[in-house]
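Final report, Chapter 2: Outcomes

The project's central promise was a pipeline that accepts a single protein chain and returns its three-dimensional structure in a standardized token representation, suitable for archiving and comparison. That pipeline is now operational. To close this chapter, we reproduce one record exactly as it appears in the project archive, with the input sequence first and the structure output second.
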Amino acid sequence: MDAVQRANSGHPGAPMGMADIAEVLWNGVLKHNPGNPQWVDRDRFVLSNGHASMLLYSLLYLCGYPLGIEEIRNFRQLGSRTAGHPEHEPALGIETTTGPLGQGLANAVGMALAEKMLAAQFNRPGFQIVDHHTYVFVGDGCLMEGISHEACSLAGTFRLGKLIVFYDENGISIDGKVDGWFRDDTAKRFEAYGWQVLAEVDGNDSDAVAAALTAARAQTQRPTIICCRTVIGWGAPNKQGTKATHGEALGVEEVAATRKAIGWPYEPFSIPDEVRAGWDQRRRGAAAESAWREFFLRYRDAHPELAREFDRRMRGDLPQNWASTAAAAIAAMAKETAAKATRQSSQAVLDVIGPALPEFVGGSADLTGSNNTNFKGVRALTPEDASGNYIHYGVREFGMTAAMNGMALHGGLIPYGGTFLVFSDYARNAVRLASLMKVRVILVYTHDSIGLGEDGPTHQPVEHLTSLRAMPNMTLWRPCDGVETAVSWAAALERHGPTALVLTRQALPPQPRTPQQQADVRRGGYVLIDCAGTPECLVLATGSEVPLAVPAVNALNSSGRRIRLVSMPCTEIFAAQDEAYRESVLPRAVTRRLAVEAGAPLSWWQYVGTEGRVLGLDRFGASGKGSDLFPHFGFTVDNVTRELAELLRQPEGLPQR
């Protein structure tokens, strides 16, 4: 309450109400080592109700993590490590970024999935080297959010017995008593998911919490939710149990009254040495990790290859032969002669790289056959067998993406998951948090434009490419053929951050390239067709629009004009290239420019400038065959040629319409 008061900002109520629960878990049960917060077999702790961040920061400080009292004093201040909501910082003991309610819970489901999968892959009789729990604190808001249904249904289906959720059932949110808008029978809801439910636990009674936690840990075949009845703002004599403690400082007078009520006579930010000593977990944590490391040495003697593989995967390194595997995939695509949808090319790439990446975990939100996200030899994860490498997520785009974030955060796995590009909207906030945390998840988005056809405008993305490109730390690839698709997969796997692979439903012809052009695909944008001398006009295209631009550019060049075609499958990677390379591809002196993409035009004006044009789509699509829709909306060779002809008639340097 002192930190919130000093900042005059924050949420004191949940930390005060959940303090007894936190003390039981963190001061003797949680397996962790403050001296090495990234010990691989630590228990994972997720504060899904991230507005209670001061609870987590207090626990980290008291247990001996490298978080000083000055950081606590500077809660919510610019530059402080104690942000308003927890931000992923594994070296500090913060496992994930939380704040958008429910997502931490879904992250935790992914972490528990990762633990179960890695245990199935690496544990051997007598050697349980992967053996830890995932604990989550959630509030009423987390369980109101729809993602909680997606994630918890999935957790029950896969019998995640080492997932334990503490539900802070205080009945208060910002607007007041939740009884007016949240009357779910949570216990029955989770029983229906297949969870063990421990209901009506007094969350302000340490003995009751400890007994419930013992029962939860004894249940290994089902996840557990412990429904803890708590008093929000417990200890504040005039405000506890009310919304006044939820999202604002208590006030100087109430803080003083609370000190008196709970018998805490110490000054703000003053913790007696004996209290610190009673909480300090460094010795206990170091002993636990040391015992595990000795255990792992015996495992290494008995299973040396498995031990090496486990070390590699937990470091996040790709296999030693990865470069040759990626090269083989690109070479295989370069030999293709038939037109293929890039979603099919993607599957062909997966057939090459998938078997070489044991850390790969694929999946789809009930669209495997459409996303082409499976590959030869893939095995589905089942409730009975966690040794598979493919997850059928069902129709749960948001839950899938947030769970993938959790798997990536856990370590040892590289998750990818597919859905239609238009349904990325369902998962949007989890995609945003993946970008904020810079986690390596691969988002396979197929059916990327009006070219998908008959399903109509509800399924045809328009604004999505621009929207995803606008997201910081996101890298989006929209390849035009098999080679670019293979390169995009390689780039995604080599990047520590989220990548969206945007793929077509319709077939696209392979483009001829020199070895240098093939190498330059990795630079995000490159000259696919050049002209003799300085170009009069530059054409930029991506994905399915590259094949429309090719014949238009070739015809004009054959007639004596000088047109350069730039394929730009990834604008973010291109923008990161050195200035000399970018100038060699897009000379500033050439101001006649045309961008062609079957999507919203907004992101292309930075490349074509005020004197250029964008052949894009600024309205919703229509239901019909893809082959009819492209001409209907102006995406034809003739229209590209017409736009170029108008640009060429315009004197250089004169602003365009």
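Archive annotation: The mean pLDDT is 97.
This record, like all others produced under the grant, will remain available to the consortium after the project formally closes.
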